[in-house]
Amino acid sequence: MKTVITYGTFDLFHVGHVRVLNRLKALGDRLIVGISTDEFNAGKGKTALMSFEDRKEVLESVRCVDLVIPEISWEQKIDDIKKYDVQIFGIGDDWKGKFDYLNQYCEVIYLERTYGISSSSIKTLTSGLTQERLQDMRNAVDAISGILKSFGN
Ligand code: C2G
To answer: Which residue from 7, 44, 72, 79 has its CB within 8 A of the most atoms of ligand 1, so it is best to mutate?
Structure first.
């Protein structure tokens, strides 16, 4: 049994998350995912839109994920590797080099990120969508369809 472990926030779950998890699972037989608690994220200067509980529920429903554990500190990785008898630690290459110190406990692999998608870009995109903006867009669509209709008659 080859066990792979990774960590992340996995906020607003998207295709980049799906791909990195499937590629990590393909490296072994069992995939464990440590997801950052909201408190731990605050320490990272990060605020997830989705609560820890919701992010956990999403990850537990992902087929390639076998176990989800809370990530509460930077230091827990060594204990987790020993506790779960991990052979591979893997993460996206936005963390390249940051976890090389784990090499003395298991293999460390950095996987290429999926470019063009991120939780923060989704957040930025949706944050501008106020009710007012949405109403403006609806009005514009109505106006355009009115014009098109008049052309059609
Ligand atoms: N990821 C990816 N492609 C993207 C976005 C994310 O491959 N377009 C990968 C990241 O490289 C990471 C995982 O998805 O391996 C989760 O990313 P985040 O939720 O952004 O994780 P982060 O907050 O960086 O937490 O102890 C490590 C930290 O918990 C990592």
So the answer is: 7
Cβ-Cβ contacts under 8 Å for 118 (sequence gap 6 or more): 14, 16
Q: What is the DSSP letter of 128?
A: T
Per-residue pLDDT tens over the stretch 58-94: 999 999 999 999 999 999 999 999 999 999 999 999 9
pTM for the predicted model, two decimal places: 0.86
What is each CA distance from 143 to 26, 32, 130, 136, in whole angstroms?
Answer: 51, 52, 20, 10
Instruction: Determine if ligand 1 sits within 6 Å of the CB of residue 10.
Output: yes
Ligand 1 binding pocket includes 92 (Cβ within 6 Å): yes
Output DSSP code: residue 49.
S
Determine the length of the chain: 153
- 112 C-alpha to ligand 1 centroid (Å): 11
